[in-house]
Design goal:
The structure is a homodimer. The first copy, chain A, is an alpha/beta fold. Chain A has 15 helices and nine strands. The first copy, chain A, has a seven-stranded mixed beta sheet, sandwiched between helices. A two-stranded antiparallel sheet of chain A has the order 1-2. Chain A is globular and about 65 Å long. Chains A and B meet through helix 1, helix 4, helix 7, helix 8 and helix 14 of A and helix 1, helix 4, helix 7, helix 8 and helix 14 of B.
Chain lengths: 319, 319
Amino acid sequence: MLTAHQRSAALKAGIELGLFAALGDGPATAHELATRATVPERGMRILCDFLTIIGLIVKQDGRYAHTPTSAVFLDPRSPASMAPTMPFLMNEKIMTASRHLTQTIRNGYTALEVPLAGEEVIEWVTFARAMQPMMAAAAEYIADVLLTAGPPQKVLDVAASHGLFGFAIARRAPACEVVALDFPSVLEVTQEHARAAGLKVTSLPGSAFTADLGEGYDAVLVTNLFHHFSMEDNIALMRRFHAALRPGGRMAVLEMIPNEDRISPPDQASFSMMMLTNTPSGDAYSMSEYREMLDAAGFGASELTDVPQSPQRLLVATR
Amino acid sequence: MLTAHQRSAALKAGIELGLFAALGDGPATAHELATRATVPERGMRILCDFLTIIGLIVKQDGRYAHTPTSAVFLDPRSPASMAPTMPFLMNEKIMTASRHLTQTIRNGYTALEVPLAGEEVIEWVTFARAMQPMMAAAAEYIADVLLTAGPPQKVLDVAASHGLFGFAIARRAPACEVVALDFPSVLEVTQEHARAAGLKVTSLPGSAFTADLGEGYDAVLVTNLFHHFSMEDNIALMRRFHAALRPGGRMAVLEMIPNEDRISPPDQASFSMMMLTNTPSGDAYSMSEYREMLDAAGFGASELTDVPQSPQRLLVATR
């Protein structure tokens, strides 16, 4: 466990050196893979053996090969590849924060001078460019859930980022106005992605805490936002979203929501660690904590479902 | 895997905040553990949940507790605790080198300006103070193996460090002169440990590559040394040790020696990664590579055994 950091480093190196792309062409020796990456053989051999030991690839008769899992999730030619998320998930801030965990616990808040929370930082641009593969399944699911009530006319996509959540709505409801709220530097990426997808979204530059959101929305999409902030801040945000919805309108919250024991399921529950290290007061909130926040913000009924092909959950609350 | 670095960070924080000592007094809530460590509760709760999720401790009815494994290997009151090894295994150099793995592979050697290999660096003092728990079982085993041929008169302990390997001999053969070779800053620790153990060893300050080793040794102990260097350098070292032995004398090599497939057993085989990141040309060499080096250095018969209660192997080669 004291050397677990090597696992992240090895996966990062494999991605950066194009190893998982090279293995997509078939099994290869360390010598062949080193030649392909134009690096000395020793390092490539040790990297490949290490990735084999930790179960990411396999080795047989001196040749390394994809596992069925790495072929789907690490080969860049696979549409489900998660490799593009690495530049965000292992960005300089996250890695620095991880090294200062003891200090963070002593202080009670992130050791980062500029946290990964409500500030306009370059990492949110990286996020918008990198995290699409991890969000695609959820975006389709949320659109399916919201569209069962018929096509919406106006939807607010809060912290729109890569834009996928709004795009999934716009694709199914071409007459709907999708308003994308995010920092100006991030909205450049959102609009770039919208153009590439042949879709139109309205830019609303600013912070979710202070921007003029407008009103009368059929739905407000709040995806991966609340975990960055304290419950108090989240109640303030929810009140703003509540006011922006038409009566009967719905707030769709995509989140890591652990069970009340806070240790299961592992992916949701361990996400708290990411929020401890990188934000001043964020957390992976449990459903009882979400109920408390929703009540305080004036929301009525709410429904929680698991998102297929994702470790996340969808919470839909009605004004 | 991209967040595996959090596991090392969490274990480090648990050790530094005295969590595993506190759990030694019995199950406790996050509030109680935070009070004990004088830190805010949020960070302690998230840390404890995370350590539970990764299997290091358990949680029941809101109270955290040791597992049988953490009680033995992480509670500082346990004589088998591995927690003292953390300051070496997660030292600044090792953590920095891990972050630069891609560059290391591109260059073909460590990205560290001053590597963790044959130089006199402060980390070898840390090693001497920290790594005893991981070496105790092997030290007793090596002494047992060497003493079956009767008590030796003169033994050279190369890279003596904490001193445990020489001490195990000295304890069983009180008339034997144990010569401890290491850098001067490290020998201060060796002698401090010898005094504490009520044993006498002779200091031989210097590098294994250049020091005047003397001659006529019944045994030369070479523990965790060869993995830092190239095969060529190791052959040069072995020749020096060969010359220092009396005819029939034995070189006892404690090492991480993976199987020829270089992917098993996992602890030995993955040790190559530590050598790739931190040394210019070290490796976890296989037995066929050791045979090649031993032959080139003029050694005769050699025997390989597993070391009980250790991931390491013992190679005994006779002059």
